[in-house]
Amino acid sequence: EKLGYTTETAHDIIQNRFHYIIDWPTLIIMAIVLVAYFVFLFRASDREYREVINEKFDDK
C-alpha cells in the first residue's frame, strides 16, 4: 500500500511475466560491430606494440 497498490491491484502486476522480444537483425548487426571493433583494437594495438619494440631494440 505504500507504493500505491493494494493486494488486489498488485496481483496482476506480480503475475504478469516479462516477455522479451529479440530483434534478430539488430542483434546480428551489433555482434558484427563488436567483433569488428575488437579486431580493429587488436590490430591497432599490435601495430603500436611492434613500433615500440622496433624503437627500443632495433637501434642497438
Q: Can you give a write-up of this model?
A:
The chain is mainly α and 60 residues long. The protein has a domain at 22-60. Helix content is 72%, strand content 0%. It is built from 2 helices and no strands. The longest helix has 34 residues, at 24-57. The N and C termini lie far apart (78 Å).
Write a concise keyword list for the protein shown above.
60 residues, single chain, mainly alpha, 72% helix
- β-strand percent reads under 5%
Alpha carbon gap, first and last residue: 78 Å
Percent of residues in helices: over 70%
Order of helices and strands: HH
Overall geometry comes to elongated
Number of strands: 0
Radius of gyration: 27 Å
**How would you classify the helix and strand content by structural class?**
mainly alpha
Mind describing the biggest β-sheet?
Answer: none
Mean pLDDT: 88
Q: Indicate the multimeric state.
A: single chain
Poorly predicted residue ranges: none
Number of helices: 2
